[in-house]
Amino acid sequence: MKRLVVLGGGESGVGTALLGKQKGYEVFVSDKGSIAERYKKVLLHNSIDFEENQHTESKILNADVVMKSPGIPDKVALVQKLHSEGVKVISEIEFASQFTDATIVGITGSNGKTTTTMLIHYVLKKAGLNVGVGGNIGDSFAEQVADGNYDEYVLELSSFQLDGVEKFRVHIAVITNITPDHLDRYEYDFDNYINSKFRITKNQTKDDFLIYDADDEAVQYWLKNNKTEATLVPFSIEKELEYGAFLRQDTIIMKLNTEEKLMKVSELKLQGKHNTKNVMAASMAARLLKVRKNTIAESLSDFEGVEHRLEKVQKINGIEFVNDSKATNVNAAFYALECMDNPTVWIVGGVDKGNDYADLLPLVREKVKAIVCLGLDNQKIIDTFANVVDVLVETAGAEEAVKVAYKVAQKGDTVLLSPACASFDLFESYEDRGRKFKEAVRNL
Tell me: the pLDDT tens digits for 200-217? Predict the structure, then answer.
């Protein structure tokens, strides 16, 4: 009997453990921290051996294969030891994909991947396909494979998940864009991060498709210098293309087998340039899976968007509060600021992943009247923007940040939470940060 060791007892870890047990592996789950009560119940109920608050090496190094949670960096001593002893260390996605024949659409990128994933899932579901959604969001992919009930999967894939991929193959790959993010995990080398994202196309064949942003420099750079077998399907909002999706005047055009007008940008429920791109990527993925154009257009005109991504919370005394807690990097905050039409009070800060805020200076000059810092170490933000805005205040929690922002704002302004940073200094996750922000707004 093969031994599967799972490092990390969260959503992907427990899902992998269940699938492993079902497929006849001897399974052991090990988490350096504590395992949440609901996951512990599942492990106990399924008689799966586990430990928490420690890694017992003797129980881990004897594995035939190790599934490592995406949150654990490769440079951790235990992982290095596994590598040096020749034990295979893979991701949940790699492990689970060998047990399913479903068609997989995989979405990666620095920004827009959640929206694009949810959008594709929404369109396919509306078209009557039997489709699951997972990866970096929702229920564990491995657990869904164990239940075995979907013909298609739409998976949001982070670079960390792709790092653990060997044979995993997607039929349709989407790369929304690539901007510097998580560089702390990639030796601060942008090329390493780009290569990591492009692992999504590594096992694709000529029968598969790679949908990508033709306006993105990093993407173009990789494609110029590397080869993929997949059929290339670009999208652009800057130029007309021979093949792919682009804008003509205000209309989205798709040119795959024939040229089709999809819809006007103004008819989209999701506004903003970045969302137009997300829509193009999603539409072509759906079209390549033979979904009718009308079904796609219908879905796009009523898709509501994603929680914590430019989510309108409430208007209080003419001041609009917007929750963009999912903006965990500079580029995401750039998109958010670009979408702002009113004078903006910007709540920013958290755990910096090697951010360079200089790109935001023109937008901040143009749109931001005040900055409220929300993090333990705000020095970099202060150094960059102190001379650009009139008001810059430091706060120590969502409640205080919202109160201060409300005081500074006037009727007709927008208060935008778009942190450009990870959330682990004051919050459990970006979801936790977003929820606390919304709660604080409702308590004003």
Answer: 999 999 999 999 999 998
Please check whether residue 137 is in contact with residue 114, taking contact to mean a CB–CB distance below 8 angstroms.
yes
Domain 95-302 has CATH 3.40.1000.70: no
What is the pTM (predicted TM-score) of this model? Answer: 0.78
Q: Does domain 3-90 have CATH number 3.40.50.720?
A: yes
- What is the arithmetic mean of pLDDT over 1-6? 96
Of 142, 124, 120, the C-alpha closest to 25 is: 142
Q: Does 112 show up as a binding residue in the annotation?
A: yes
117 is in an annotated binding site: no
User: In angstroms, rounded to a whole number, what is the distance separating the alpha carbons of residues 357 and 50?
Assistant: 43
The answer to whether 111 is a known ligand-binding residue is: yes
The domain segmentation of the chain, as residue ranges, is 3-90, 95-302, 311-442
The overall average pLDDT reported for the chain is 91
Cβ neighbours, 10 Å, residue 320: 19
C-beta separation of 410 from 337 below 8 A = no
135 is in an annotated binding site: no
412, pLDDT greater than 70: yes
The DSSP call for residue 265 is G
- 3-state class of 271 per DSSP? coil
Which of 358, 366, 360, 354 lies closest to 418 in space, CA to CA? 360
Query: Once rounded to an integer, what is the mean pLDDT over residues 306-320?
Result: 88
Write the single-letter amino acid at 21: K
- Is 114 labelled as part of a ligand binding site? yes
Topology classification of domain 311-442? Protein-Tyrosine Phosphatase; Chain A (3.90.190)
Here the tokens at position 191 are 């090329």
Q: What is the dihedral of CA 181, 186, 190, 192, to 10 degrees?
A: -130
- 311-442 matches 95-302 in CATH topology: no
Q: Any binding-site annotation on 228?
A: no
Structure tokens at 154: 């739409």
What does the H/E/C string look like for 191-247? HHHHHHHHHHHCCCCCCCEEEEECCCHHHHHHHHHCCCCCEEEEECCCCCCCCEEEE
Q: Please check the confidence at residue 124 and state whether its pLDDT lies above 90.
A: yes
At 248-258, the pLDDT tens digits run: 999 999 999 89
Tokens 């927008």, located at residue: 414
Q: Does 185 have pLDDT greater than 80? A: no
